[in-house]
Each structure stands twice: as structure tokens, then as C-alpha cells.
Amino acid sequence: MAKKGKKKGKGKKKLTEEEKLLLLEQKSLEAEELRKKKEEMLLQFLKDKLGKEEKFSRVNINKLNQKWRQIMREAKSKDLKKEIAVLSQTFERVVDRKQNVIKALLKDVEEAEEQYNVGARQHFFTVDNLIDLHKRRLNRLYEEYDTELQNIKDEFSTERELITSLHQDETRKLQDILFAMTQNHTDRETDARQEFQSIRDDIKNKNLEEKHALRIQLESAVENLWKQFQAALKNYNETTEERKVAFETLKAKDEKSSKEIETQMKKLQKIQESINLLRSKIQANTKECEERNKILRDEREFVLRHFQKLKYEMDGCRVEERKLLSKMVQHSNEAIMQLQRVAEKGDTILRCAEMCRKLETEEEKVLPFYASTLTKGEQEDVNNAVYEAPSEPLSAVMHNYVGLENFWKRYNKVLLDKLSLDQEKNVLTQENRQLRAILKQYLDGISVNDEILSKNNSLFVINERTNVRLVVPITDGRVQTINKASVLQNGRSTNNVNGPGAGFQYYMAG
User: Fold this and answer.
1) Measured between alpha carbons, how far is residue 220 from residues 217, 225, 261, 447 in Å?
2) Max CA separation in the chain (angstroms)
3) Dist CA 470 CA 502 (whole Å)
4) What gap in Å lies between CA 466 and CA 463, rounded to an integer?
5) Of the given ranges (77-81, 85-89, 152-156, 215-219), which has the lowest mean pLDDT?
6) Residues 6+ positions from 328 with CB-CB distance below 8 Å
7) Residue environment code for 242-272, b if the CB has 16+ CB neighbours within 10 A, otherwise e
8) How many whole angstroms separate alpha carbon 99 and alpha carbon 317?
């Protein structure tokens, strides 16, 4: 046995340096692989442990959150119950106050309704009177309308007969003109059609010749192009044969790789589906918790908003009712003042009417209205304009005061008398001013002092001429001029004929 071992030791070869290096590298690689396996096993163990810890921590957190939510809900429900009790008490107090205000306002409304009924009865009485007046006026207008309609019908029949006769004459003339125009048009149409046919034949012949020439040219060009196409096709097939073979090989490789990609994609899709399923579960849990929190927040916000809304509505109702009450008081005061002013105005009108009635003459008592100066046609035009339907708001308002026509007649009569008296007053004041000027001029002429001599004076005569214009123009026809001769002949003035006032002209009212 020993001999055999010696033989073996002798037969074993020595390792070279390269083999030693390879052996060392192999051992180092094996040691590295063992170390990596140990690290991977440790990492996997730590990951599993971390996953379990995270899972237990999530479960504990959920339990803690649930307990805390229950505690917070109980505390919040107690606070909300207290607030709701306080709000209900305040709301009942406000409702009682509002009911008292509503009862007071209902009493005011009943009083106002009674006043309104009294005014409405008076208004209905006046409206009935106006309706009776309107009916009487409508009957009169219907009669006038019937008479005018009969006159218009007669005029229309005469005008219609005249127009029909004229229309028949015109139609006969137009038919003659139309016949002549159609005859002329047919002649022109036949001439134009013959000329069109000749031009058409010439153009048709020219087009046929040009078409034949173009056909010959295009056939030769098409043959040349076909030969060139066949040569190009043959050359293309020869050059692309090798590329075609390469394309077939690449196509087979592409199909193989596409199958591998498809299998890998299926695996990835399965992994992705499992990931999506886990994510959906996590999202569902989070969404459920968020929805619960949101519902609680929404309930809290709804209660707060409802409270704020009730408070705002209550404040708004208070303000509106206060405004309405102030407006009602203001309107009632304004109505009372307006009625007082109307009553005072009515009293003054009645007093003035009584005073004016005392000052009326016998003629005014017998004939209180002035006689109309319009003709019958003008009066009819005025009546038609009065009873015509109003087209503007102002005219519609004026139609409501047609019953005051007699009052306005008397008012216009008095106004005309006043204007005539004012005009006569102006004329008399002008005459009085002229007479005062003449009298002053005369007095200045017969008196002597420094102030008069410094002005124009009739006594200051040079070369038998004075610087005073003695004749004052009289524009009124009622004043007569009397010269000196007529005065002497009538014996009205014998003294001081050639005195200082010899050139004075006497005026008297005619």
C-alpha cells in the first residue's frame, strides 16, 4: 500500500503560477458568493420582520384612531346638544316677539283697509258718474259716425266708378303695347337663334380637328413612357434581391423576439394586476375613513350654516319690518299732509268762487261762457281731435280732464278780460307819461330860473327860432289836435294870444 502511495505522489504534477492564481480566484469567488447569499438571507429576514412590524403598527394605529374618534364624538355631541338647547330657547323668544309685532301690524292693516274701503266707495261713485257721461258722449259719437260713414260710402262709390273706367282704358292701351312688344321680341329671337347655330357649327368643327391632333401626340408619348417604366422595373428587381433575403431573416428573428416580449409582458401584467389590487384595497380603506370624516365635518358645517342662516334671516326680518314700519308712518304722515293741503286748496277755491260770484255782472251771470268764433267745420275738427284715441301719454292724461271744459272756458274768458285790461292800462300809462311831459314842458316855458335857462327853453328865441320841439307826435287816434285859429274862432281863448305860449298846441281826448 505504501508503494502505491509513493507512486501516486511521484505521478502528481506541480501547479504552475497561473493555475495557482486561477485556484485562488476560484476560492475567492466561492467565498464572495457565500457572503452574498448570507447577506441576502439576512436582508430577506429583516424585510419580513419589518413588514410584520408595519402591519402590526397599522393595526394598532387604526385601533387608537377608532377609540379617539369615539371619545371625540361623545364630547362633541354633548357640546352640540347644549348649543341646540340654547338656540331653541332664543328662537322661541324671537318667535314670541315676532308674533306680537305681527299682531300690531295686523291691527294697522285693518285700520288702513277701513280707510281704503271708504275711499274706494267714493271712487266708485265718481267712476259711475263718469261712465254715464261717457255713455252719453258715445251715443252722440255713434250718430255722427253713421252720418259720416254714409257720406264716405257715397264718395267711395263715385270714385270707384271713375277709377274702374280709367282702369279699363289703361288695360286696353297696355294690351296693345304688349302685343306689339311680343311680336318684335319673336322676330329678334329668330334672328339671334339662326346666328347662334352658325357660330356653334364653326366652333364644333375647330374642336374636332384640335382633338384629333392632340390624340396622336399623346399616344406616342405614352409608348415612350411605358418602355422607360419596364426598364426601371427590371433594374429594381435585380438590385433588391439580396436585401429581400436579409429582410426575411430579420423578420423571423423579430417574430421570435416578439413572442418572448409577449410572454414577459404577460408576467409583468400579472404582477401589475396584483399591485393594483393591493393599491385598490388600500385606497378603499382610506376612502372609507375619509368619507366618514367628511360626513362628520359636513354635519358640523351644516349645523353651523343653518344657525348662521337663521340668525341672518332673523336680523333681516327685523330690519325689513323696521323699514316697513317707518315707511308706513312716513306715508301716512305724507298722506295726511297732502289731504290737508288738498282740503285747504279746496276751501280757498270755494272762497274765491264766492268772492268772484259777488263781483260778476248781470251779463256774466246770464252768459258765463264766451261765444265760439269757430266755424262749423273747424268745430267738427276740434271735436274729432278731442274724441280721437290718444297716441301719447300726455294726451291720455288730458282726456281724463275733459269734464273741466266749462271751467277752462270761464277761466279763459277771465284771462282774456285781464289781458285786455292790462293792455288798456299800458296805453293809458303811456298817454299819461306823454301828457306829463307836455305839461312839464309848458310849465318850464312860462317860468324863468337858472336851471330852466341852462336847458332847452322855448323862451330863448334867436332869429325868431327856438331850440325846443313844440310838436310832440301823438300816435293814439283818440287825441285831436286844435290849432290857435280854431280856438280864437270858438272864443275859448282871447287872452295872451301873442304871449309866450302862442305857439303851444292844445290837445284833448276825442
Assistant:
1) 6, 9, 57, 144
2) 217
3) 11
4) 8
5) 215-219
6) 108
7) eeeeeeeeeeeeeeeeeeeeeeeeeeeeeee
8) 12
